[in-house]
Structures
1.
Amino acid sequence: MSIVIRDVREHELDSVLALNNNAGLAILPLDSVKLQRFYQQAAYFRVAERDGNLAGFLVAFGSEADHDSSNFAWFRERYPQFFYIDRIVVASRRRGGGVGRAFYADVQSYAELRYPQLACEVFLDHGADPALLFHGSFGFREVGQNTMPNVNVRTSMLMKELCSYPWVRDTYGGQLPDQPWARARTLADATPSATPRANDP
């Protein structure tokens, strides 16, 4: 069956929280307060559906966001403008089935209309090779390493140039066409009554 990527709905946050906290050591745990803050503030907060079931989620922030991640702060100290993937989680039964690749294609389509670079990190202390290979296959490169305070986790800091951004900036100058696939996320889009968005081109 096809994978559908769409904005999260508020009533799904409990399921998202369970997905996150069952993901293992490669993802930091969340509580409901922080997840609600993600829901209110993230520029990109989408879930994947496969066979009608929640298969994963991805949360990302623009570089201008009020976001308290130490890894986000590391990027902001060094780069003026970027789109930051805070976390991606794929349900264990769906791993290896293309959900992660569908998310990265979707988040890049969103980001390259607005930012010159896409940023994320990979935890290095818990068998990082599959994640590093996955990101390398999408064109990410390591631009440094960071040790996260309080949790003492070492991360590989990854960045990808978004080659379409200069053309979009020069052509549209921040006034993107009013097309469903190009619109920014709003909480109105994320309510249960909103029409789900599939993988628009």
2.
Amino acid sequence: MEKINPAFLNHLSQMNQIKSQISENNLALIGSTQNNQIQFKDIMSQVLNNVNDHQKFASSKVTAIETGKSDDLVGAMIATQKASLSFSGLMEVRNKLVTAFEEIYKMPV
């Protein structure tokens, strides 16, 4: 039987923290909308802002390493990967939405 890598457990706990933050953000968004109606534009705006924040943070971490202000290479790589994954997820959602729109567009009236 193989032992579980401690780094894997660390990544798993980080993923659980991100999952709980996303759930909390969604609940906050639901509570902030009028009559508890969630609008698509609000959700997409929040997602785009989150992806943009991840990209800006990763960029600042890499810039700090390049200029010698920081030596946290691991933190910069993790931030870069997080930004990359969030952008990839956003592109997958966009592709699914485009496909759904194309299917609706092809429906006979």
3.
Amino acid sequence: MSEASHKQALYELVCRYAQAVDQRDWAALARLFTPDAVLKGPGFSFNGVAAIVDGMNGLGHYSVTQHHVHNHLAEVEELEASAETYCVANHLYDADGVTRKLDWGIRYRDRFVCIDGLWHITQRELLLDWSQDLPLQGAAQ
């Protein structure tokens, strides 16, 4: 597999993470990580894939989320890789009868390993660069 092919596979992996989280597809999410993976961010650290899935269930208090993956720069060294990925994550929720939208400007710093030809996340660190929380303008379905 060429370096470009590996980098494309890594980009697809981080997009699959966003899709699994937004669709609350915890089985798909679990398949993206190694069993001993770590996911950490401001105020949380989940060690192991079971803890990651349990922790991500906390998104249930949002009616909808959308993670928009942007810049993704990966470095590949044989069967290991690292990347920094920019993301804007939108979270809709209700408070006092008002639908609100919490937006996060995120940078993920990731470590990956390729096992049997498939890339998996071994470590994901969520760095929160900014946030805003405003009443939603327009209809939310």
